[in-house]
Amino acid sequence: MNQADSSTIVVKRTIAATVDELFDAWLDPDSLAQWMHPGTTALSTASVDARVGGAFEVLMHYPDKPLRHHGVYRQIERNRKLSFTWISDATQHSETLVTVEFNVASAGTEIVLTHERLPGQVACAEHTQGWTLAFELLADLAAKPLVLVTFDWVPEMPRGFVRDIRVRWALEEAGLPYRVQSVPFSDRNADHFSHQPFGQVPWLTDGDLSIFETGAILLHLGERSEALLPAGPRGRAETLEWLFAALNSVEMASLPWSLLQFSGNNDGTPGWNMMDSFLKKSRLAHLEPLLAKREWLAGPFSIADIVMADVLRLVDRFDGLADYPACRAYVARATARPAFLKAHADQMAHFAAAD
Amino acid sequence: MNQADSSTIVVKRTIAATVDELFDAWLDPDSLAQWMHPGTTALSTASVDARVGGAFEVLMHYPDKPLRHHGVYRQIERNRKLSFTWISDATQHSETLVTVEFNVASAGTEIVLTHERLPGQVACAEHTQGWTLAFELLADLAAKPLVLVTFDWVPEMPRGFVRDIRVRWALEEAGLPYRVQSVPFSDRNADHFSHQPFGQVPWLTDGDLSIFETGAILLHLGERSEALLPAGPRGRAETLEWLFAALNSVEMASLPWSLLQFSGNNDGTPGWNMMDSFLKKSRLAHLEPLLAKREWLAGPFSIADIVMADVLRLVDRFDGLADYPACRAYVARATARPAFLKAHADQMAHFAAAD
Fold it and tell me: Which residues belong to any copy of the GST N-terminal domain (chains A, B) (predicted)?
């Protein structure tokens, strides 16, 4: 390795995090997508097959077109060393080699990245800049106290509707930095139940607080951002009553209805008819005239809208809003928000990465 | 009127409230029961037929036996004058006459009460003391900013389970003063829907704030009392996650289940079986081991327990806790609390008074 060599660069950075955390940040696709991108606006999606010989891909979503980076893992020595090939437009599609070493340091962990076989000095300069920026983002990510925990994978059907989307959406609306961590879908252990007593997801950790129930998480985030929950007593009260209304009046009717729909038990029995009427006559019929007259439930867009729109879009999925055009239009305008689109794309990519 | 007369007394009191509010406090049976009683422990129940010639009854519940006061309205001039006959043990069952005049005063409203035809000086002294104390309670009541609004009447079946009980319970636990106001069960008008968009009860007014959804009301009250919601960040987070869990994880399963039970649609159809399993396998089975190990959900008793216990006792009513003894024991210890017993008795008395 010779830094004067016109085909090799070395980039070093010490980050205040454990070796464990930083090593995972390279191999967990969610983490990788969150720091390996070219800036704060363009985002990445990533897939990882974390074994020697396994492939990875990072798509950096530039405004004009995505830039594809891909390669194959050559060495994986947990918490010590990682090496992989690296091919992109910027390498002129030639195969280059990246080696990352992790050294325990007094201020955390030193990362030493060596990028070899780059095609010339311009490529060397570009990649030095690129890795330096990426490490800046990785350091930011490691400093983030908010961690959203969700399943590593779910079947096709619930994708896009797993409840972590409500938390992702709120975090994106508020611009709060966060990381995503996975727990196994198919093997929920005691640690999982200690965070979420019903074995569900998501939960959120904020420093040493661990909070389950999306309603409680959104309220917690709301206390941190006026983009989610107004600070004045009237705005706060109105937002909270609608948050509870979405969860305990509307979803209490819509979720059983959706379960019966999903399982094919929407069968004209008296029980089904009762649940159908509970949702439509007792809930949507009252919501419809309100949503025809207001853009959002409680003045400005808030956590109440995140929950209500997410509740209603599941009803819409089973065509339950056909007779409620104002409810449907409300769902459309809520889900057109950039924060929702980002949250939705992230959830889809997260589960797809584990297929 | 002659104060020296041995059969007539006059009691005056100026109270910081509008004439409107104070006039209503005499003719609304809920209000009447809350101030026309002999002290802070013994309570009253009241019925009122608020028209000239209509009868009223106030039962003051002394520890040994209720004391009955009754009479008939002779004059009702709204916001000016009220007169009625008054018969009780203390009048030696002879018919006496009470006239109440309402005068606008700079500090609120002056009430001038004249009680005629009392049987002698002892009765005069007793009634002077009685009315003076009652006016003290009326002044307290008028100063209370918290008003719980519920139905004037409901059918037999839901009594004891109407959701205002959660709010009554919280108010009693916290010792917060409040009044109860009624809205018609059978004729829900636009004003009702402006406070509660689904036409349900309860709602709470706190000064000029009006809040619906029991979850939002309990959270609002929790901010006022550590007996309901711990102030520290960890205690607060744990209480709130369990509040939402009770409303959005457990009740979302239990309420549809109860509706199907109540309507006789617990019929072994696949739809019923799914909802039964949703409640028992996905919820109660996870709650059972937790409640076997802890007295309350989140450390000290809190609003989370008020909701969870109320949710579970409806399941218990349909014998759904038979296989979950820890859940059942939890309901038993929560509903043995004096604040629950008071809230429950008040709700039963409130609806019974309108039969």
Answer: 151-229
